[in-house]
TrEMBL record:
SUPFAM superfamilies: F-box domain
Protein name: F-box domain-containing protein
Species of provenance: Taxus chinensis
UniProt domain F-box: residue ranges: 9-58
TM annotation in the entry: none
Taxonomy of the source species: Eukaryota, Viridiplantae, Streptophyta, Embryophyta, Tracheophyta
Xref: InterPro entries: F-box-like_dom_sf, F-box_dom, SCF_F-box_component
PROSITE patterns tied to this protein: FBOX
Pfam families: F-box
PANTHER family, sorted: BNACNNG10540D PROTEIN (PTHR31672), F-BOX DOMAIN-CONTAINING PROTEIN (PTHR31672:SF2)
Length: 70
């Protein structure tokens, strides 16, 4: 479930961790290296063993997938 938090007039949308993990698993490692500075939570997630296994599996699965831009 998506949560919205408003603090000091600024709204933040919080996505479920499993959704964030799934989205990040499709990114190349150089992007992940930059995104780990977003928060300590993302840093911990990106360097966790389960995430690295998921990222490796996604990378291998998409290596031979042709991309079509419509």
């Amino acid at each position: 479930m998506v949560s919205v938090i408003e603090e000091d007039g600024v709204s933040q949308i919080l996505l479920p961790e499993d959704l964030v993990e799934r989205i990040l698993s499709y990114l190349p490692m150089d992007s992940l290296s930059r995104f780990r500075t977003v928060s300590t939570q993302w840093n911990s997630l990106i360097f966790s063993t389960p995430f690295l296994k998921l990222w490796t599996a996604c990378t291998e699965a998409h290596k031979n997938t042709p991309w079509t831009l419509i």
